[in-house]
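Try it yourself: sequence plus protoporphyrin IX containing FE, in.
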Amino acid sequence: MHFSFETIPTFVWVFIAIYIVHWINKPRLSKNEPPMVSYKIPIIGHTLDYLFNAENFLAKCRQQYGDPFNIYVFGQVTTIAGNEFAHEVYRSDVFSKESASQDSFPLHRVLKILEYPETSDQFIKTVREQFVAKLPLYTGRMQKQLMISINKEIGDCSNPKLIITTNGIFSSIIARPIADTLVGQEISKNEDVVKAFADFTKDFISILRHVITLKKHLKPVLEKRLKDKEILGDKYEPPLDTIEYLLNDPEYGTKVITDDYLNKICEFVYVIVVASIFTSAHHIAFALYDFAGRPELWDDIYEEQERIDKECNGELSPQHINKMVKLDSFVRESLRTGGSALMHIPHKCLESYTCKNGMTIPKGRMVKTYLKDIHYNATAYGPEPRSFLPYHGLENKFPATKIDKNYFVFGSGKHACPGRFFAVNEIKIGMHKLILNYHIKTPSGKIEKKVHLGPLTLPPVAGLIFENRKK
Ligand code: HEM
Ligand SMILES: *[C@@H]1O[C@H](CO)[C@@H](O)[C@H](O)[C@H]1NC(C)=O
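Structure, out:
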């Protein structure tokens, strides 16, 4: 061993540097905070457990520390809200998901419209009045668009065909009906527009390109509609879609299509694309893998779809969709067990908050909802809450859209997802058509494993085997 004089100060400096970094990043807790889960390595904290072993790690913390508890990840203290505390977070205005998402993902830099707080109300209103209130009127169009997508993306499978599902195939399937509802029947036929919607959340790098694509196609359509309206007056028959709704809105309406106006409408449309396509695509993928891996359910669910298909002669009405009770229950269960351990969107605490149990959450703290703790609840789902209970919703009369204390996939309270009726409808129609047309299997013949990425869960990557049903 020989230390030169130089190496000694180097050690000291490294030590001081680590100490300072640690001091800067040291989790600072205020009084009466939720308990901090203990950790051994400074700076790193729980980051490794969070990245590589999230489900077990969180379950252990929950058992040992109760609810809520604090963890230290990526140099930041995060409060984890389980079954008890999450309901409080969703009920209080002190916790804001808008503020949290601005911090964690700067989408508002590109979609400027997100910087204005009042637009959030306009989105919610638009989804309620356009997507949900008019849902029955969209049923016919939705199934037509879904069939176009299915034929294009899956097509003829006279011989069994392995379909790769990791390349955005479900986004493409889901994007078409959403494009139809958002920008209308003229433009949603355009493959560039459908692709711009489907890819929007896949490559954020190309966001600006996607906005330009939509602007280009939207301009002539909006101009024509304004002109028609002027010429036809009362005889003008307004098309049913979101851009028409916005054109007639007191705040979003216009008499001339300027570039600013086009930007505003395009951004508005893309915010709804972000909220709707990725989530729906994700969950239809989970649902198909759940179905494909469980042969014991195939006949029962197929029978229901076949009976309804005969009844409606292939043209579903809202009443027929309501009759898909087994499929609805299956989808609900897939939504309950498919989601991530933690909810994707965190909430930020806007001012110091005292919980019912007396603990204090300091201003600025990020709070993440521990979805699995809410969903895997033995009181609500019996002794094995982690198992797949396809008819739990049917037996208990809980439709897939109904929010409940232990069914939190759409959030809860006044900010619960307003698009859930649309989403569940779309997933059900898509599943109905797929199950009617194809036998769907997993390559292994068993339930395929989901992919875990830190606390997030993604659909399996094995692919699905489709084979035409003989009619
Ligand atoms: C399976 C598909 C979907 C899932 C799992 C889902 C889930 C959620 C969740 C968890 C929230 C946030 C609740 C919260 O943290 O406060 C939310 C909010 C929202 N979702 Fe969805 N969503 C889906 C589909 C859709 C669709 C299709 C639309 C639009 C047509 C939509 C529009 C919105 C909007 C506008 C909000 C904001 C509501 C508010 O802040 O008051 N979502 N969604
Ligand atoms: C299950 O959920 C109910 C209602 O939210 C709650 O009262 C109960 O404590 C939960 N059980 C467990 C084991 O978390």
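One thing you can check immediately is this: The longest helix spans residues 259-292.
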